[in-house]
Amino acid sequence: MAKAVFQRNQKVWVESVGAWAVIEKIVPVWARGFDEPVRVTYDVGLGRDFHAHELRPEQSSHDLINDDEPSWRLLRARNKWQQPDDCAHHPYPGTYPVVVTDANDWGGWRVPGAEYDRDPLKIEFQARLIASTRRLLSISRHLAALVDEHNGDAKQQEQDDLSAMADLLDDLEDL
Asked: Which long-range contacts does 97-102 make (Cβ < 8 Å, 24+ apart)?
């Protein structure tokens, strides 16, 4: 027997079309002698009904960031546009920061050369901040859980700060 995998008004990725859509209607297919539908399809307003294997749900940002995965790393790339002698005022002459977000050193954050040359200390700080974001997010989640467990034990200022942090976590996960 078939069960509905998605809900009405849920945003899904339609693989065969390559577009996002919203489920407008759940269409069960009934057969005589069965108490439950034998198949469930979904009308997403694209001209035909789709099966569940053709649709993919939208991932929440909480699902995208797993605390068990390797942390993001700050690497240094060779500065191809300037010699180390030309950029002696940089914190690390001859290199620039690269934040890698994948286990295979792919993907992440890089900075244009002209922007790095304009304010290297600011870019170095941004790179360190981005690289530590996952750890900060994990700590924030842990603190939010502690606040939920011991809500009345904290001082008012601490409660306000931690509730603001919990609101920030909610905003991050809603992106």
From this structure: 97/123, 97/124, 97/127, 97/128, 98/74, 98/127, 99/72, 99/73, 99/74, 99/75, 99/127, 99/130, 99/131, 100/72, 100/73, 100/74, 100/75, 101/72
Residue ranges of the domains in the chain?
11-58, 73-131, 134-174
At 59 the three-state DSSP class reads coil
The span from the CA of 116 to the CA of 111, in Å, is 6
Q: For each of the chain's 175 residues, which pLDDT tens digit applies?
A: 578 889 898 999 998 888 899 999 999 989 888 888 889 999 999 999 999 999 998 875 555 555 555 678 888 887 777 777 777 777 888 788 888 877 777 778 888 777 777 888 888 888 888 888 888 877 877 777 776 776 666 677 777 777 777 777 776 665 4
